[in-house]
Design brief:
With 192 residues, the protein is α+β, with helices and mostly antiparallel strands. It contains six helices and four strands. The longest helix is centred in the last third of the chain and has 47 residues. The radius of gyration is 25 Å and the shape is elongated.
Length: 192
């Protein structure tokens, strides 16, 4: 559905551009069809890239480091309990060395999932609170929410990027048009 939304957005962009260039509004726009195909292709390609490498990119951006059971035995114990209860393989356990209280799950399948917690969360929560947080993150892994969120993020990001490029282009075009009009007025004043 999101790829169809991206294609529709591309079609509308092409349709408007064709109308601006030709001063006619066709019901079916060739430029719109090309733009729709480009947006749909970009959506599929970026979704594929994010499915293949998204988890690694997220973990690298978060600067999450894998830890051993000896580093945080209570955390490992809780993750093992929750993975058994959810019926999913044990995800990788990682820590971000920040004081904020946060946790997240990533991975496009239960076999490559990871749960990341911050050092602040580990230092602040007791076992029951930690179970609640890990249970929540394990729910994202078991329901494959992390895969869906990855694809949604990429496709919505693509649409936002294209919209931003169009907005900036229109702003620069307006500035250029205003500058050209000012130059034309100055030349007209000099001639008279």
């Amino acid at each position: 559905m999101l790829t169809a939304l991206a294609a529709l957005f591309g079609y509308l962009i092409g349709w408007v551009l064709e109308g601006q260039i030709t001063d006619t509004v066709a019901m079916v726009s060739y430029t719109g069809l090309v733009a729709a195909a480009v947006m749909a292709s970009a959506s599929v390609i970026w979704s594929g890239v994010s499915l293949a490498f998204g988890s690694r990119m997220v973990l690298a951006m978060a600067d999450a480091k894998p830890i051993e059971k000896a580093d945080a035995p209570q955390l490992f114990n809780v993750v093992e309990e929750m993975s058994l209860a959810a019926g999913v393989p044990m995800p990788r356990v990682m820590v971000m060395e920040v004081d904020a209280l946060n946790a997240f799950a990533t991975g496009t399948s239960t076999s490559n999932a990871a749960i990341v917690v911050t050092r602040g969360l580990l230092d602040t929560l007791n076992r029951e609170e930690l179970q609640g947080v890990i249970g929540h993150e394990m729910g994202h892994i078991a329901n494959l929410d992390t895969r869906y969120m990855t694809i949604v993020g990429v496709t919505v990001g693509l649409i936002a990027l294209v919209a931003s490029m169009i907005l900036r282009t229109l702003q620069w075009a307006a500035i250029a048009a205003a500058g050209a009009a000012a130059i034309a007025r100055a030349r007209a004043v000099r001639r008279s």
